[in-house]
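pasting for the record
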Amino acid sequence: MSGICAVWHPETPERISGTLGSLNAGLLLEAPERSSQWIEGDAGVAVSSRFAGQQIYHDGQVLLACDAELLNEKELAIAAGVSVPTTAAVLAALYERFGTGFVEKLRGAFSLVLFDRTQKKWLAAIDGFGIKRLAYYRDEKVFCIASRVDALARCGAADLQINPRAIANVLNFSANLAPETVFTKVQRIIPGAVLVVSSRQVRIQPYWDMRYDTGGHSNEARLSRELELIVEHSVADHCKDYPIAELGAYLSGGTDSSTVLGMMTRATDGPVKSFSIGYHEEEFNELDYAEIAARRFQSEHHTYLVGSQDCLDAMPRIIRCFDEPFGNSSAIPTYFCARLAAQNGVKILLAGDGGDELFGGNERYATDKFFEVYRSIPRVFRQGLIEPLLNVFPVQSGTLGMAARYVRRANMPGVERMLSFQFLRTHPLPEVFEGDFLRELENYSILDTPSRHYSQAAARDHLDRLLYVDVKITLADNDLPKVTCMSELAGIQTRFPFLDRSVAEFSGRIPARLKVKWFQKRYLFKRAFRELLPPEILQKKKHGFGIPVAGWMKSDRRMRELLHDTLLSARASERGYFRRDFMADIFRKHEADNSSYYGDTLWTFLVLELWHRQVVDEPVRLAV
């Protein structure tokens, strides 16, 4: 993998070279990276580079390392007065001219670390959605920051105590939630924020975030035309500077990926390359819909069928590629799709991630509307008539039972209702975790972070608040690291045109009632692109990059053995995280259940344990 890092040893500058070298070495997971560094006194920056925007820069005022794909770099170079620009030189010149506020001018995906040698102050920032990421450790002796959490574990300077909340988060959400990491004293920079570090302070300073109900009109026809134009411009900007032969599109056959492919066709000359993944298990296949989109836009379409052997072969590299435990099994098809693109000469893939979270495309938004119908009934009737009548009949099955469950969920606060079927909502913590580990969790609740996002959203409407929660968790903590990591593992980069600030800010101006109208998801989006997309795709149900991993764990002997030998081992048990009787019960339920629920849960447990073996149990390379 690749990325940037930096170290500050204000009290012991003689240690800077060893710590920085070890930290940078922690970024080098694959052979093609090129490593370079620069040290000035007690501060140093370094880069493990695979792509053009990964650079370092130094002059009399600043040291800087960046990993940036800026869409407006030429305009920024003019504003900064840089005659022979590199990305890093432009960023340094922007800082010298505009100060900390220069990050607000950046359009695209980026992470950067900058040391002001005059003020003895560090600045670090990532883009507004967290496409690029940074994690840091600070104590009284050292400040370390890197693109990867596990690189900090290799530098010998950070406290590596495991964070029990992160383990619970991975089990429940498939990924940990920022700003926390798997190590208690290592933190992530949140999207759209600047980290400021000096000898006196560590401060997080937000510079951009999603805002909703920000004014504007509600004319559906005008909004549809404006949305189409904004997305078209964003896709064109994400395609520029690369020849058509090096561009491609993820194509799941859904609304978002098909829209991106269609807009790429408008923006480029010649057929666009598109890539889809399928399975022999027909219920997981969306290749028919991908073929419909490919024919509509006359793309050069490529497909690959992923099987259990592919999963087994790729699993060690995929697990190690993530800098924290990552339990989302759709990383498997994402990797093979990116690999297929790389094998066909693609260097940049465009993806439709973000469309659901910006425009109301997830099924749970329509489901939530169903519960909001009950909440629209005057309280005097709900609490004075309907609920007392249901309480009179203690029936938990049939029509009355369904009604009682509906009322119970409808009465939950919004974010709690959305998460009511999450694993650690349906399985009490004492049932899952060992006693000592449970005590370390203290007052943990899976609602902690989602509730904070819900309350902090700059929105009045309940739906927009739910969208904001998903932007922060489903997108920034889960889907984006999945796609970016798997793309890089395949040797390419992915760009996300829906996450251009122009598109995101426009989505915030769309009234919530036009994102999900009655029970129709992404209503305005589909209206905007109804002339572009085939009707079959506009009408299809959402599927995504699902994977039949639960079935493979039953049908494939090697996967069954790996699962049992890993999770029921003494080594796994000795970590003291999960109760043995609970783990055995999950195995029994997996064997008896025809759904994928318990198999997907066991996949998360498996990834969690294998990641620990690769990272936590591996001897730490101490700085010299």
